[in-house]
């Protein structure tokens, strides 16, 4: 008998079974087991859990400082950013989103790029501090120069990206804070620009910067789409008062080049933010907050603690 006749019944049986095996494998791929692992922990402040049931990554809530070079430079020793980061250590992460040379038009361009969308699993923004005006107040023909109304409209747009329910970046739990620009010493600023190579024409006026500081206060006093006003730290007023009380009105102790702040200038800002938080948002005042992670003695046996 030929050998192929011996194996023909077996070959026929395999031909019948192979299609069924393929269907069974496709079914398994489309419907994985339901108990493969579930997310554990509070989802709003955590990242996605792994596929093995592990707890998700804990994301620290943030304080975001958004502004121009005065914000960018606030992480110098004694600067407001550095002091706030120290005060909130292990409680809130303080993030520097300062952009040297930016006015509010430029700021809006980058804000739409880095501001989280409501649906993204990223750290929550507990406080959003907005600090513009120093460059918007530049005098024409500076490309940074804005009119008062343009500046105020841009500030409203910045705030509305966070507070408006219709915004894709809406964050109802975020507390907003506005800072006014500090004063300028236009004579010192003009001398600084004139000494550069090539020399630049004067681009700041003290009275104009004061008007922009008042504009920030006016925007803060308006009710937003969420029905709330935004508290304001009057940086301009605080530094001017300190200069009058302690320096005979001279600003050199607070401004290093007629425009940017010294550590003493930043100290006025830090004190203003501290007072505002204590009065407006006491639950976010650093001394009223608990650390996110436990004390180190939590990880040693009770009998070995001291």
Automatic annotation (TrEMBL):
Signal peptide residues on this chain, from the entry's feature table: 1-23
Low complexity bias locations: 42-51
SUPFAM superfamilies: SGNH hydrolase
Domain SGNH hydrolase-type esterase: 66-267
Matching Gene3D superfamilies: SGNH hydrolase
Species for this entry: Rhodotorula paludigena
The protein, known as: SGNH hydrolase-type esterase domain-containing protein
Residue span of region Disordered: 28-53
Signal in keyword set: yes
InterPro entries tied to this protein: Iah1-like, SGNH_hydro, SGNH_hydro_sf
Superkingdom classification of source: Eukaryota
Keywords: Signal
Record's keyword annotation contains Signal: yes
One Pfam family hit: Lipase_GDSL_2
CDD domains per record: Isoamyl_acetate_hydrolase_like
């Amino acid at each position: 008998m030929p050998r192929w006749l011996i194996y023909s019944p077996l070959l026929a049986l395999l031909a019948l079974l192979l299609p069924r095996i393929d269907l069974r494998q496709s079914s398994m791929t489309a419907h994985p087991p339901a108990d493969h692992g579930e997310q554990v922990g509070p989802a709003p402040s955590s990242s996605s859990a792994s596929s093995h049931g592990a707890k998700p990554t804990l994301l620290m809530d943030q304080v975001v400082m958004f502004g121009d070079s005065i914000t960018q430079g606030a992480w110098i020793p004694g600067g407001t950013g550095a002091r706030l980061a120290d005060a909130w250590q292990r409680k809130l992460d303080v993030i520097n989103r300062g952009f040297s040379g930016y006015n509010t038009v430029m700021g809006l361009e980058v804000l739409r790029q880095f501001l989280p969308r409501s649906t993204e699993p990223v750290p929550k923004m507990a406080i959003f501090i907005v600090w513009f005006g120093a460059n918007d107040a530049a005098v024409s023909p500076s490309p940074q120069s804005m009119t008062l109304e343009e500046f105020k409209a841009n500030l409203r747009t910045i705030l509305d990206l966070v507070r408006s329910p219709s915004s894709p970046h809406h964050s109802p739990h975020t507390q907003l804070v506005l800072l006014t620009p500090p004063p300028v010493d236009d004579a010192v600023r003009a001398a600084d620009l004139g000494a550069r190579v090539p020399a630049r024409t004067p681009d700041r006026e003290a009275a104009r910067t004061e008007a922009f500081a008042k504009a920030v206060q006016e925007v803060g006093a308006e009710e937003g789409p969420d029905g709330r006003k935004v508290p304001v730290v009057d940086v301009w007023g605080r530094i001017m008062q300190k200069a009058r009380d302690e320096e005979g009105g001279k600003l050199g102790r607070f401004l290093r080049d007629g425009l940017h702040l010294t550590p003493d200038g930043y100290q006025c800002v830090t004190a203003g933010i501290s007072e505002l938080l204590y009065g407006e948002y006491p639950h976010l005042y650093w001394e009223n907050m608990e650390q996110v992670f436990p004390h180190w003695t939590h990880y040693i046996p009770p009998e070995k603690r001291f």
